[in-house]
Protein: histidine kinase
Amino acid sequence: MNKFIHSFRMRIIYLFIKSLLIAAFITFSIYKLLQLYYRKNVYYGDTYMYYRQLMRQIGDVYVFMVIYIPLAIIIFYLLTRTYTKYFKEISEGIRHLADGDFSYKTQISSNDEFQYIAKDINEASTRLKQAIESQALSQSSKETLIANLAHDLRTPLTSVIGYLNLLQNQLNLTPAQIEEYTKIAYNKSQYLEELIETLFDISKLDLSLTLNTTEQTTINIQQLLLQLINEMYPLIDERDAKIEESIEPNLFTMGNGKELARVFENLLSNALRYGDLTEPIQIIAKKTSKTIEIRLSNHGRPISEDDLPHLFDMFYTVDQSRSLQKKQTGLGLYIAKTIVEKHHGSIHVWNGEQRIHFEVTLPLDLRNI
Structure:
């Protein structure tokens, strides 16, 4: 709740309302001062009385709205100037990241999403520097990673800066236009944050091809999946989706809980975004003699047989069978595959029974059976 209160959207709404209230106070004060002046100093027949009668004919409300609206826009512009500096600082950080300068640190002093974006950029720089120094990334994949994501990062950032410039420089905007442009800028900044988080995840995962033994713990897959469904309930409810789950108890494996949660969060998010939600999403988890099999299935248009072998490749997207409001990065399933393989498991996908099936196989920890 505290994070929501201090979010960028709430901050902009707060500044928008604050600008309206300040403008209203100033306009009302001008009105009362003029009213007091006319009562004490203007008499019938004076020149100023003519202007007063003209104002009455036009209407006091309309006259003072001419003062109120531009004043509100100017005040909103002054109150949001700080965010323009934030976007410029983020842009500078991304430019250094794209140029391979990992020593530059993005400095933003705020308690909203911008602080997290700056932290993610700095973390991404640190992780990429470590990956390059340890030669965990090959030269070709490193260049492809930076080039593709740097391009994707700049696109939403350009849109955000453009709309903020409109808010700052166009003094004839109506309150409705201000609210619309603010909403668009917020949505673009959310996508920007997602891309930065993806960059951070991909760089972190490529640091090593094997699990770090210090991060391995016993993981109960049943609890992990049920907790994930619980945490994603707002998104499930928003999409009016239904989950049918059949998860056996005592599904223990060894590994990194946060990384495995990322795998199943990615698969469930894909099902919620791309699937036909008129039918339930099925989550089935069971154990065999030596493995745990977790299958997530959703209704939807079958994936082309040409696309299936490449679905887990870096930067690969299935454009012809997906209709998205946001641009795809083609990294989500690659990250999922990397995590699963680091846990000595496998992941594959197939079409069947009017459903798309993703199945993750992990080694069973026999010590906890």
Q: What stands out?
A: The longest helix spans residues 8-41.
